[in-house]
């Protein structure tokens, strides 16, 4: 008896069931956001069912057949989805399409390479185990085709792609485009303020909940008490990654990827959203000197192309800033640490102030709180103690303190006179160590205004989205814009209802899946001639439909 049990455990049947059960348990735990230990009971339940139903060793045996299961490809695609869900938390098919076309050179995701290798090995083991089970057990051969269909139908990747395919044949496809207002400055203030726009990577306002996250957000709370804090800034679909978040908040529209509208599918994008006017375009026309600084490469995801194409004079990233470091080795996977970038940002503001040649605008993108664990700067390690390499709240606190310290230093130097300071998260964070706490309730983005003309201590809660930041910033700077609107956004300083208040996130997501006209507007100039005609027809239909448009259009002329 003592020899029989070990031999039985060596049987391929149990190894196959164990591999399938472990992979199934990990997939369920990842997608359903369950603790990692839940993999063990799920695997145990699977093995128990295998023993009870004699999977791999049916009571009525049939000869093994050398077949290839239909479910192999659907299983691989589910593996891809689980990997993306484990890496990012929320999987946006638009982000995948955009990065493939805009380029992913010089990214900082090298830490995910080992994870990708392990996922690949696990998938090979799963495919081998499932193939063995189908060949040995005729019951699994009978349900294999049905299982393949179930796996395809339930995969969120196929669901998203199916929705985009349906948009191609939609009868309308211009619902969002009809609500788009071309950004226009009707009147400028007598003394236009400077603008400092700080994007804090993944620093969502959800972290302000002290019951869940302690004092991690405390320094941003302190900054908020000096100005106007906006709560309820939700995340629309196609705004959930860095480039999409910056375009949403500077152009007033989600970033709908070029997709098949792109002329050459085998070349990176040469322009980014060339068909619309953004914050940089408007300020450039008003005589602003505009600079962008970030520690990562400007070549990643078309970042440099976007800023150069939309009015910015100087675009500085890793390639131009790294040679200026006093310590060349003080870098991370993505690029420069934020304490270094903030020093360069302060220097750039000093340079612009010294020129005394009209108003300036500086946009800065941090990376301290970048998922999955962040890149806390050396200055924070000295202040906060040792970093364990995993706790995202350590990096969140670091990011908040660095921003607080930068504003303090600039203010003490007198560099923020007649300056509007905007602090915003680029998007909600992706999967991090505090993921279970983050998704336990509603989430919103950071957005606060300080400085020029902003009364301290104000708090406004509106159901809004990052597309509403664009017109809000313009009005906070003293500019008069058409109907308090720019793009799809509505100024939160006005009483105009936002799209989120009128229609809700779910309805807006459904509308976005059907939209083609706004996508064509974004990428005008990259559309092949054959599709330009379709765009013109959509524009004509837009004019006709707009005549009968009521609801939000009727309200758009009211304060």
From TrEMBL:
Question: Which parts of the chain span the membrane according to its record?
Answer: 12-29, 35-55, 113-134, 146-162
Q: Which GO terms describe its cellular component?
A: plasma membrane
Keyword list (alphabetical) reads:
Cell membrane, Hydrolase, Membrane, Transferase, Transmembrane, Transmembrane helix
| Record bears the keyword Transmembrane helix | yes
What would be an example GO MF term here? transferase activity
Q: Where is this region: Disordered?
A: 530-559
Its localization reads: Cell membrane
Extract the CDD domains matched here: LTA_synthase
Q: Which SUPFAM superfamilies match?
A: Alkaline phosphatase-like
Identify the residues that the record assigns to the Sulfatase N-terminal domain, covering every copy.
193-479
Q: Where is the composition biased (Low complexity)?
A: 530-542
Membrane topology, from the record: Multi-pass membrane protein
Principal location listed in the UniProt entry: membrane
> Which domain of life does the UniProt lineage start with?
Bacteria
Q: Name one Pfam family in it.
A: Sulfatase
Record's protein name: Sulfatase-like hydrolase/transferase
């Amino acid at each position: 008896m003592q020899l029989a049990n070990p031999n039985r455990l060596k049987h391929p049947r149990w190894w196959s069931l164990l591999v399938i059960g472990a992979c199934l348990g990990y997939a369920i735990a990842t997608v359903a956001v369950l603790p990692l230990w839940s993999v063990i009971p799920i695997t145990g339940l699977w093995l128990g069912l295998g023993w009870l139903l004699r999977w791999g060793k049916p009571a009525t045996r049939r000869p093994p057949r050398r077949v290839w299961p239909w479910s192999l490809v659907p299983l691989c695609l589910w593996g891809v989805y689980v990997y993306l869900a484990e890496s990012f938390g929320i999987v946006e098919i638009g982000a995948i399409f955009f990065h493939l076309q805009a380029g992913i050179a010089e990214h900082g995701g090298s830490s995910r390479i080992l994870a990708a290798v392990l996922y690949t090995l696990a998938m090979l083991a799963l495919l081998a185990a499932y193939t063995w089970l189908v060949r040995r057990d005729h019951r699994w051969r009978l349900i294999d085709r049905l299982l393949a269909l179930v796996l395809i139908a339930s995969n969120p990747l196929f669901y998203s792609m199916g929705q985009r395919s349906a948009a191609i044949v939609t009868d309308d496809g211009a619902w969002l485009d009809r609500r788009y207002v071309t950004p226009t400055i009707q009147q400028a203030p007598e003394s236009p303020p400077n603008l400092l726009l700080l994007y804090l990577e993944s620093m969502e306002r959800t972290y302000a909940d002290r019951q869940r996250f302690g004092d991690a957000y405390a320094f941003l709370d302190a900054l908020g008490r000096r100005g106007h804090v906006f709560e309820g800034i939700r995340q629309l679909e196609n705004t959930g990654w860095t480039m999409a978040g910056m375009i949403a908040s500077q152009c007033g529209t989600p970033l709908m990827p070029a997709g098949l509208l792109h002329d050459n599918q085998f070349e990176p994008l040469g322009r980014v959203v060339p068909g619309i006017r953004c914050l940089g375009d408007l300020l450039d026309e008003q005589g602003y000197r505009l600079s962008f600084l970030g520690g990562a490469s400007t070549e990643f995801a078309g970042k440099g192309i976007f800023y150069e194409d939309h009015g910015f004079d100087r675009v500085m990233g890793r390639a131009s800033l790294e040679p200026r470091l006093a310590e060349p080795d003080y870098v991370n996977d993505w690029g420069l640490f934020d304490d270094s970038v903030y020093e360069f940002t302060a220097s750039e503001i000093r340079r612009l102030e010294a020129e005394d040649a009209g108003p300036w605008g500086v946009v800065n993108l941090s990376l301290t709180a970048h998922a999955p664990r962040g890149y806390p700067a050396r200055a924070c390690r000295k202040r906060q103690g040792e970093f364990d390499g995993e706790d995202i709240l350590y990096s969140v606190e670091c990011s908040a303190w660095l921003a607080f310290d930068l504003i303090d230093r600039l203010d003490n130097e007198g560099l923020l006179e007649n300056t509007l300071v905007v602090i915003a998260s680029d998007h909600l964070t992706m999967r991090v160590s505090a993921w279970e706490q983050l998704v336990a309730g509603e989430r919103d983005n950071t957005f606060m205004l300080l400085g020029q003309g902003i009364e301290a201590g104000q708090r406004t809660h509106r159901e809004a989205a990052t597309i509403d930041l664009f017109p809000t910033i313009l009005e906070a700077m003293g500019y008069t814009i058409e109907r308090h609107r720019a793009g799809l956004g509505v100024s939160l300083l006005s009483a105009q209802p936002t799209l989120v208040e009128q229609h809700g996130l779910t309805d807006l997501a459904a509308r976005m899946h059907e939209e083609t006209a706004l996508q064509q507007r974004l990428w005008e100039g990259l559309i092949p001639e054959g599709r330009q005609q379709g765009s013109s027809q959509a524009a004509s239909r837009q004019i006709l439909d707009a005549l009968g448009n009521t609801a939000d259009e009727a309200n758009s002329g009211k304060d």
